Amino acid sequence: MVKKKEAAVQILAILQKEYPDARVTLDFKNPWQLLIATIMAAQCTDERVNLVTRDLFKKYRRVGDFAAADLSTLEKEIRSTGFFHNKAKNIIGCCQRLVKQFNGEVPRTLEELTSLPGVGRKTANIILGNVYGRQAIAVDTHVKRLSHRLGWAKSDDPDRIEFELMKVLPEDRWTISCHQLVSHGRKVCLARNPQCPSCPVVRFCPKIGVSINN
């Protein structure tokens, strides 16, 4: 029987070899661009978001530009990302809050970030981990799926999964581990047709019959 933490360390070592350059795949040049792109990425692929932001960030060059944006116009501009009404509303509201309360700067704490419209723990952790150098666990659909399959988490709630993963993953690898799990989820551990025969961590996977102990 393999202990959960020991298995996690070995799995992460393998994923490090497989995906040494794993990183956030949203295109951005500054903190507020990543914040807006992440809001748009909900229920949408990063590739689609990057296509939209390529032109969007040319038109809206500052936080204040988004804060002053016309809602119906912004809805049309981000329509292809899905859920465009709520996303446009949150982007404008978020940027208005940034201008009013944070002098146009993206805050550096989880509490302040999650006080912004449209920003939950996942989005906040993406900012903390990829802009401000903090170790943070961002639970997206891939991280959630692999956490369940590897026996690291049981909850269906992303926020609770985050806390479950904190007990399993080494803190100094929280940010990069999430990127590597996402990469593995996109390439091998697919949602509908996981490529188990070619999976480099299959010997540690409870789905294949390995027993994992806390």
Count of spatially separate domains: 2
Proportion of residues in extended strands: under 5%
Overall 3D form: elongated
CATH superfamily of the largest domain: Hypothetical protein, domain 2
**Distance, first to last CA:** 10 Å
Task: Identify low-pLDDT runs.
Answer: none
Provide mean pLDDT, rounded: 95
Number of strands: 2
Helix and strand content put the structural class at mainly alpha
- CATH hierarchy class name of the largest domain: Mainly Alpha
Strand order of the largest sheet: 1-2
User: So how many helices?
Assistant: 11
The whole-angstrom Rg is: 18 Å
For the sheet with most strands, the description reads: 2 strands, parallel
Q: CATH topology of the largest domain, which one? A: Endonuclease III, domain 1
Q: Helix and strand succession?
A: EHHHHHHHHHHHE
Q: Helicity range of the residues?
A: 40-55%
CATH architecture of the largest domain: Orthogonal Bundle
Please sum up the structure shown.
The protein is built from 11 helices and 2 strands. The protein is an all-alpha fold.
Detailed description of the structure:
- By secondary structure, the chain is an all-alpha fold.
- It has two domains: 99 residues, Endonuclease Iii, domain 2 (Orthogonal Bundle); 100 residues, Endonuclease III, domain 1, CATH 1.10.340.
- It is 54% helix and 2% strand.
- It contains eleven helices and two strands.
- The chain has a two-stranded parallel sheet.
- Helix 5 crosses helix 6.
- The protein is elongated and about 55 Å long.
- The N and C termini lie close together (10 Å).
- The model has no long low-confidence stretch (mean pLDDT 95).
